[in-house]
Amino acid sequence: MKKLLLGILVGAAGVSAFNHVTRNAPASEAVAMDEPTQQVEAAEAPVQPQFHCDGRVYCSQMTSCDEAMFFLENCPGVKMDGEGDGIPCERQWCGRHR
Fold first, then answer.
1. Residue 21 — pLDDT band, cuts 50, 70, 90?
2. Counting beta carbons within 10 angstroms of the beta carbon of residue 81, is it exposed (0 to 12), middle (13 to 18) or buried (19 or more)?
3. d(CA 34, CA 54)
4. Tens-digit pLDDT profile for residues 24-77
5. What are phi and psi of 84, to 5 degrees?
6. How many Å apart are CA 88 and CA 67, to the nearest integer?
7. Helical H runs in the chain?
8. How far apart, in whole angstroms, are the C-alpha atoms of residue 67 and residue 2?
């Protein structure tokens, strides 16, 4: 009976230690986790925008159509849609070939 209780205690301690390590593991160690867990965690993680409002307002300051669209939709005071049609930087980035 003592061996059974000792085995249960050791097993519980091992599970607890494993849970503690996996919860506090850096992102580089998370790669070692099994695939389905990674997919669930990635779906739950908030998506960080690739761009952020930083004061740029003109098409000449953009580097892509996606960046110009982000600025038009999210940043105040931009001057990228002269026609007011919701398509920014048509000459430089977001022309007909979008």
1. very low
2. middle
3. 38
4. 545 544 445 555 555 555 567 677 779 999 999 999 999 999 999 999 999 999
5. 70, 25
6. 10
7. 2-23, 27-30, 35-44, 65-74
8. 66
Do 70 and 49 meet the contact criterion of CB atoms below 8 Å apart? yes
Tokens encoding 40? 């669930």
DSSP reduced 3-state for 17: helix
Q: Which long-range contacts (CB under 8 A, 24 or more apart) does 56-64 make?
A: 59/88, 59/89, 59/91, 59/92, 59/93, 60/92, 62/88, 62/89, 62/92, 62/93, 64/93
Extract the tokens encoding 53: 């409002």
**63, 89 contact by CB (below 8 A):** no
> Residue 54: what are its φ and ψ, rounded to 5°?
-135, 20
pTM of model > 0.85: no
Of 19 and 1, the structure prediction assigns the larger pLDDT to 1
